[in-house]
Amino acid sequence: MKNTNKLNPLQNMVTKPKRLETRLIIWVTGLCVLQALLFGALVYQLTAQSLHNHIGDKALAVASSIATRADVINALKIPSDLTAINMQIEDLRQLVGADFIVVGDENALRIVHPDEDKIGKKMVGGDSQAALKGERYISVAHGSLGESIRGKVPVYAGNNEIVGVVSVGFLVQSIDPLILSRSSEILIWGLILVGLSILAAIYIGQRVRNAIFGLQPDEIARLFSEQDAILNTVRSGIIALDPDGKVRKLNQRACEILDKPTSIINQNLSLNDLLPEHAEFLLRNQRRKIVGFELFAADKRLILSRFSLQVQGQADGILLSMRPSDELEYLSQQLTKVQAFAELLRVQTHDYSNKLNLIGALVQMGKNEQAIEIIGQESQGSQAQIHNLLERIQDPVLAGLLVGKYHKARELNVALELNPDSLLGVIARKDMLERVVSILGNLIDNAIEAAIRSSNSRSAKVRVTVDETSQTLLFDVEDTGFGLGSDHDVIFTPQYSSKSGAEHGIGLYLVKTNLDSCGGTLEIGESDLLGARLSVYIPK
Q: For the Histidine kinase domain, which residue ranges apply (predicted)?
């Protein structure tokens, strides 16, 4: 059996145009041609109808005029010599341009007709009876000369007796040339319109091509599919937003991280639907870049970055990227902290090297007592602090945090001490420990900064107290700064900071979000060190 599913030869000859401008030219031109044809047909119909009405009115007016002529009425009453009346009516017919003027008697027998051979014969067309009953009208009928538009008027004698009928007609075939002559003008304007549409289509095609960087529709579709696939392949959650917070693009990974169904990707969403606790903060100061910002959302710790979207040099929204803290971003952040701590140790090593050189010089000079005194001064304070800390803080992570903060404060000429009454056991819950480290670390950093700012008027000092009860963890951080003022609500907003620089303003906000996530509270008061005292209570 032969295969009949062969391509039509025309399909091999006619290929589908792929270039956008070619398609636009064909589509716009085809549309304009179709519109021109429809418009032309409509105008032709309206023109023909208008001419028919005009001709009909003219025929009726001429017929009415003839029906009142005395010689016509007399001829109908006494049809003796009809030659004179036929000549007069023929002159009138030629004058008004009618194709025929017929006068019939009360029996519809012709007494006047352009063709003398048809005089005395019955009028044809079947449209004279109503006129013989007294009606005036316009009709279209097929008579002896062909199809025509006729004006029919009855002829009355002096006593209102109908004695005949006048029929004035214009052949349809004589009207068609008038319609065609007017339609030719329409055709010319239609061709001009099609030409202009082709030029407009070329211009539009070029503008559209430039606007889409010369890409063709199939290339745009492929590029969109590739970008969508790439966006859903990356392991980071991506959220693209309009400046007002409306979600422009959302990938599947962001839905997974925020515990949202992927069906919301194609819905109209705002940032409040995804991150209601942090939407206000993330939509403020959109030009400010945020990298590695820790927050709690969807019952998990996230590392979030925010970047301003730039389109042709202008800000056009923001881009959020996020990953859970236990993934690469969190490890990278920890590496950054380790690098910072290594730099701090390098500085301290350089400082100790200078002091060792001083001690060596004193020994060589025989000043042993002075060398021993310097050694004692150097080791007494730090060793006592570290020994006291390790005895009272049993959790190794918190102990390491406080040791690091101690060395950082010492490098910045700030005295950091642990309250002798402090006592804290091991924190068993890993998620609780992570939040405590973030809370305490940020509070100590803020206290060190506050103490430094007031160091010109008093000795810079920070005191840390850690304690616990059977149900609560307690932390106090005090400093010698200038305090936090009376408006305690504003200090927990993301943009609040008493320091300068884009990297500041989120420390206390992180403290608040961590406290909210674990149900803790924070109290602000005045310290006997003349600065602020921040007390944290976290239920176990």
A: 326-540
Going by C-alpha positions, the residue among 188, 190, 183, 206 that lies closest to residue 32 is 190
For 90-128, the pLDDT digits (tens) are: 899 999 888 899 999 888 898 898 888 888 888 888 888
CA distance 89 to 93: 6
> In 97-213, which ranges are continuous DSSP H helix?
129-132, 172-211
Please give the Cα distance from 86 to 96 (Å, whole number).
Answer: 15
Tell me what the pLDDT averaged over the chain comes to: 81
CATH architecture of 368-539: 2-Layer Sandwich (3.30)
Distance CA 249, CA 244 (A): 14
Computed on alpha carbons and rounded to an integer, the radius of gyration of the chain in Å comes to 51
- In three-state secondary structure terms, 366 is coil
Instruction: Using alpha carbons only, give the angle 262, 265, 266 rounded to the nearest 5 degrees.
Output: 130
Number of Cβ within 10 Å of residue 204's Cβ equals: 14
| Region of poorest pLDDT, from 201-205, 338-342, 471-475, 503-507 | 503-507
Span 163-174, pLDDT tens digits? 999 999 998 887
- Overall average pLDDT of the 47-76 stretch: 88
With contact defined as beta carbons under 8 Å apart, do 416 and 444 qualify? yes
Instruction: At 465, list the tokens.
Output: 């107290």
- Residue indicated by tokens 């320091």: 499
Residue 60 CB partners (closer than 8 Å, separation 6+): 136, 137, 138, 151, 152, 153, 168
Least confident window among 330-334, 426-430, 465-469, 532-536: 330-334
Distance of CA 374 to CAs 350, 359, 362, 378, 387, Å? 17, 8, 10, 6, 20
CATH of domain 24-178: 3.30.450.20
Ranges of CATH 3.30.450.20 domains, the chain: 24-178, 234-326
Tokens, residue 474 = 């307690």
Give the SS3 label for residue 288: coil
Q: Residue 501 above 50 pLDDT? A: no
